[in-house]
Design a protein that fits this description.
Layout (H helix, E strand, L loop, with lengths): L7 H11 L3 E4 L11 E3 H18 L6 E5 L4 H9 L6 E5 L5 H11 L3 E4 L14 E4 L2 H7 L16 E7 L7 E6 H14 L7 E4 L11 H7 L3 E4 L5 H11 L3 E4 L1 H12 L12 E4 L6 H11 L2 E7 L6 E6 L9 H8 L4 E2 L4 E4 L4 E5 L6 E2 L3 H7 L5 E10 L2 E7 L3 E4 L2 E4 H9 L4 E11 L3 E10 L7 H11 L8 E4 L13 H9 L8
Parallel strand pairs: 1-10, 3-4, 3-5, 5-6, 9-10, 9-11, 11-12, 12-13, 24-25
Antiparallel strand pairs: 1-2, 7-8, 8-18, 13-14, 14-15, 16-17, 17-19, 19-20, 21-22, 23-24
Amino acid sequence: MQTPLTVMDFLDRAELVYGDRIGLVDEPAQPATSLGEVTYRRMARLARAQAAGLDRLGVGAGERVAIVSHNSARLMTSLYGVSGHGRVLVPVNFRLRAEEVAYIVEQSGASVLLVDPELDEALAGVPVKHRFVLGAESDAQLYDFDHEPVRYEISESDTATINYTSGTTARPKGVQLTHRNLWLNAVLMGLHFGASDRDVYLHTLPMFHANGWGLPFALTGLGAQHVVLRKVDGAEILRRVDRHGVTFLSGAPAVVTMVLDAAADWDGPVPGRDKVRMIVAGAPPPTSVVQRVEEELGWEFMQLYGLTETSPIATVNRRRAEWDDLPSLERAERLVQAGSPALGTEIRVDGQGEVLLRSNTVLEGYWQQPEETAAALKDGWFHTGDGGTLTDGFLTISDRKKDVIITGGENVSSIEVEDCLYGHPAVAEVAVIGVPDQKWGETIKALVVLKDGQSVDEAALIAHCKERLAGYKAPTTVEFRAALPRTTTGKLQKFRLREPYWAGRAREVN
């Protein structure tokens, strides 16, 4: 017998087995009316009501529903109210500017846009057929509690979400993840990171990021409790860990640094010692950070390597019994590696040093971009664009073959930033590179050649980018050059531009 794997399986089980349990604690301090403490039975009822509301709007199977929101109970419920009932959810980065959101809505063909109240004014001009500002008023319009939703027949190969990611092009690409992708990723996340119904998970990771790395599905299916955190702050994370008995959280290295800084000023024992485990991904953190997590916080440090295109699990690195007696520095040195392949994932490194992988969690394709899809999945392998080495089953990421900078866990296309800077009338040439940064892992530097007779200062170019791009995509520094190194065919030699900033480091990622 074979039945389709769909994301609704996770909430269906939670409703059946843990219906009266508080499954979701919404952010209390938010511009929308908080949903407060939500049982799994109520969460399932909200998802069905949202689906019935989409029926009433005439939004049929396979149609796209975009949502731009900070972490919230409404965003998490939409994973089931939309994707779980035959439509396609498009979770959008809430840090993007209106023009960027408009492109995603148009490119995905979304007929519905759900907007966080804080973003209402900024996104007022985004054209879409149906628009709702999340909150009590839109709940009354969007949720239909009087009718059961249409139960569309869903195949596990159907697209469940389209998640937009920056890559080697100036425009973000829509990553099509199927129900099968998401289902298997969720199960693998739960398996490898030891999730159970005793867990209390704090959503420090944005839910739009690869659907919260699939943990909203995994932990729901297991009956764990979700605690929503709207905005990341180190001290607030410690307060929530203390208040809710949090055992599990995830985030980029920058989040770890925030927590460590807050812990230094914490009055009394650090909450969660010997109870909390944290998955870190986005970039390999420094060895010293791993040591500090274990020694100063007493939390278990775990690492994930993956991409939106892999749902995201690809490799896992977690403390092993064989490492227990090692000195903390040696154990940390092992934990900063990307790790070993997740169950069912095959990894190899090609002759050019690029990491290739294949797995049931690899994307179906890029939405309406067949050429990009063919290039990414060439010869039956997913081409990650990352450079690395594979030794005794352990992957180490050494550099990025593609023009992507990861700053604070956010992917930034250097080409997109360069395009923006080329739009300034004083700029003749520009190269955007990632350079090491203690807080954000990497930060964005623009190397600029000005046109003859033109002048502009660093602050003006940064402001030019911030007016046109999401703030995190703007350069933090601009350096003016007389010329940029190029090959005889005119190709920019970015590796030569990066060299002085990465000198003395074993790898060109941070």
